């Protein structure tokens, strides 16, 4: 049996894709391997979202090549970088297989041909592929939380973003196959599923929209927690928020990437909403689900961004009071609309300064958000031992906050009630409440 080792970079979607790849390969007699030095096949499932993500992977490929000098192995590049860089990856001579996100069914044959000494590439994007019939091999170590991919690709052409080019057009997966997968997760003992798509609110399969799908998955089992990501401000509907409020097992957390607080920049980014629309959606969420956590993504220093635009982002952060945020500075991606149309004219120094200001602000907002939870009791899903001590457990609230507490009587997968005694900006420090 040939052993396959896969390193996964980038988003949760890629984690789900790696699980599909293991499933496809296991059916053809390969086995999963977690020790790179034992592997016959080494693959990286890659991310192109920012230049530094790609640079890190390129450095890693050189280390794979060192392994190949010691013994006979096959090196494969999967995912977004495979799709973006195509032949350039093969002609480097460093890799044997280049396979884009819609080519994974062909991996067994690509591996076979590469094994005979012929480098292989397949970066054809599909309009239909959703891998609906493939049951992923779960890689979550605790057996608690599983990802379910509900759609692939993206039809929004945000001007900074490479994803529509690397993942192709949007397509939704058969709703019944999603529900079946959620049932299967429950049977295997999973306690939480996260429904994944670049833009979950535009999910549509026959007459099932995202609100209906969310409801169908929530009905699978009352003890299965349901999360989803990512929502787009222009598309998140009142129905989705109402379904969240109706089912106690749908977690009260929405990841709602804002990208900028300036209308001028949002328009240049080709986001299809403005600041006022975004704030209205936040108000709606809080009206229907008062305790809903809201997190976001933001890009500092997009083309032509002025100090005034940057201040608008800071003020939006203050106005919303995000519970958490992923914060980046703009990285020009070749081939995108922004790369073709707008000069990348904010200096690296200025981008870094603005990003650091946003991070400092968000750190204080996260702390404030955690302080609001002092004294509250939450039901958390235990994920395992805390990093620091085997006598402490960690888990998350429905609002996606990390809790730690002293406990030797529960285990991963249990639901436990904890009371918040203290907090840092990243963690709620709790005690068992029952
Ligand atoms: N530069 C910096 N950040 C980016 N993102 C997407 N494209 C870029 C880019 N070119 C960020 C966005 C998105 C998150 C996944 O990555 O904030 O929501
Ligand atoms: Fe990276 Fe985006 Fe591809 Fe995910 S979809 S791997 S974040 S480029």
3D structure, described in words:
By secondary structure, this protein is α/β, with parallel strands linked by helices. The protein has 4 domains: 3-122, Rossmann fold (3-Layer(aba) Sandwich); 140-251, Transcription Regulator spoIIAA; 284-372, 2-Layer Sandwich (Transcription Regulator spoIIAA); 377-432, OB fold (Dihydrolipoamide Acetyltransferase, E2P). It is 36% helix and 23% strand. Helix 12 links the parallel strand 15 and strand 16 (324-329). Helix 8 packs parallel to helix 9 (238-246) and helix 12 (307-320) runs parallel beside helix 14 (348-371). 5'-deoxyadenosine is lined by residues 49-50, 160-161, 257, 259, 297, 299, 328, 330-331, 333.
Topology at a glance:
Elements: E1 3-8, H1 12-27, E2 31-32, E3 41-46, H2 51-70, E4 74-79, H3 80-85, H4 87-91, E5 97-99, H5 107-115, E6 120-122, E7 145-149, E8 151-152, H6 163-167, E9 171-172, H7 175-187, E10 192-196, E11 204-205, E12 208-209, H8 210-218, E13 225-229, H9 238-246, E14 253-255, H10 263-268, H11 275-288, E15 293-300, H12 307-320, E16 324-329, H13 337-341, H14 348-371, E17 377-385, E18 392-396, E19 402-406, E20 415-423, E21 427-432
Parallel strand pairs: 1-2, 1-3, 3-4, 4-5, 5-6, 7-10, 10-13, 14-15, 15-16, 19-21
Antiparallel strand pairs: 8-9, 11-12, 17-18, 17-20, 18-19, 20-21
Helix pairs in contact: 8-9, 12-14
Bound molecules: 5'-deoxyadenosine and iron/sulfur cluster.
